[in-house]
Fold Sulfate transporter.
Amino acid sequence: MTWRFGQPADEAPHIAPSATPQKMGARARLRMMMPFLDWLPMVTPATFRADLFAGLTNAAIVLPQGIAFAAIAGLPPQYGLYTAMVTPVIAALFGSSWHLVSGPTTAISVVIFATLSENFVPGSPEFISAVFSITLLAGLFQLCLGLVNLGQLVSLVSHSVMVGFTAGAAILIFLSQLPGFIGKSLPRPDELFAFARELWHALPHLSPYVLAVSVTTLLVAILLKKVKPNWPNYLIALIMGSALAYLLDTASSLLGWGDTGLAFVQAIDSGIPPIAVPEMSFEVVRDLSQGAFALALIGLLEAVSIARAMSLQSHQSLNSNQEIIGQGLSNIGGSFFSAYMGSGSFTRSSLNLESGAKTPLAAILAALFLLIILVMISPLIAYIPIAAMSGLIMLVAWKLIDVKEIRHILTTSGSETMIFLITFIVVLLVDLEFAIYAGVIVSLSLFLRKTMRPGLPVNVPNADVEGRPFMSPIHWRLPECPQAMFIRVQGPMYFGAVEYLEKEFRKLERQRPGQKHLGLLVDGSVGIDLAGAEWLVEESRNRKELGGSLYVIGRYPPLRRQMDQFHVTRMIGKDHMFRRKREMLAAMVPTLDPDICAGCKLRVFLECKDRPNNALNAEPPQNDTSEGTLPSAT
């Protein structure tokens, strides 16, 4: 069987020739509501075997990840595993990507902890209830964005914002796991000075047993990834760290070494996700909506960007809005089954694709295998030492810092560097969820600043080139007409740019008092609003007061329609609005002062041949053979 674009070539979906348009419309609506109908008929024994292997591989990797991410979020370990079981199933059924695997992620886990830990004790029943409520709210936000086709809203969160946010969050995660790594209680990492002081005081009193477990787990995970990159290094490292902790704890009891300082993960009562009903009162919505919206944006950005990356490799067409709907439904459904908010996982999605997954059934099978594994080994979860978990989480956090991309941002763009640094600093010193908004505000501010300062290069026609294109007089050393100036507008003429345009044109007016006639070459991408239209009309009046005129060259119909809509054409006059430059020159040159033209030797325009020229009455210059010219024939 040959595969193309994620489906069997000999089983491509088709529509019966007898299908009526009404039936086709109903079928399209049904597939939009239940997108899994697109890929379910394509499941064959061959694809099922491939998805089965990919699902089993994914289940092995997500077991330590789910426990680690739950710890980052301030939750007992089972909630990370519930999230890894529930959200990928719903996202696979209602999403668009065939290889994206959803579940708990680092960024969302740390935002949940930062958002709720100020008002609730992490791990407490109140904290867990608030987690379900904020997950439901975030899912509703995502679903609404998808239903109204506002998925592009996530584009407001630029790449530099996410790099800065991820780097700052990674440092906070790294610091938050130090207490478990060394076995000592420390303040919250957002209180950096108090955290550093207590850490310094705790260093002489560290437990060698705790350090042995945490360092061993960390080193095994790092070395195994280098030696055997295809092996589940997190799972193996966790098993070895747990075995070492059990041996040290047993030896201490038998040999009387005293307290080892080792603590273990909370036991899991059941591997089956219990039903939960999120609390949704007015107070809960009011208190959690801001954090929920930030979570919704982060989750969508993660999911859509990862889904796009997977589709580039699998050549599958992707419906971003459908993917957003799937993410929203997965979080809404997950909140009723004891799962906290999830999103696309890059590690699991990449592994899913590399393992040969053919359909979203692989993600569903991975969730099923995880449930089976959890039911079988849930009593063993209580033997996992916190020191080993902390070591793995610190490794995850370190890998989140994209040093190569940070270096690229810092060395290529000043504006992107500013966005990155502001987001990064706000994460560390102010607030994690506010950092997303701060980064977006800075990104939009820098973008708007650019649009508020459109480019205004001075151009002149080059009569020596066919078509007489308008070119830079400085770069091409072209003469300028002493009576007319031509400016190309490179940016929108809208309310934000009007003040800048007025200032720049007054400056040019002072610098070039003789060039009273002005030709504006408006590019096709330039838009205009009411404020821009009023400025254009006022500039036309100003030119008339100076004794000149304003001529507008707008070639593209959308721009001309906008000018008609705002009455610019009527106010300036149709005889001053042109589609082509040569039409404008033919109308403008005859209006130039003939006395000035008579004394001008530049002859900038082809139309200048019809203007008065005193040089025609002057004596012809004598030939000078010494300058390399030929003598006249006799």
Remarks:
- The first strand starts at residue 3 and ends at 4.
- The CA atoms of residues 406 and 412 lie 10 Å apart.
- The chain is about 60% helix and 5% strand.
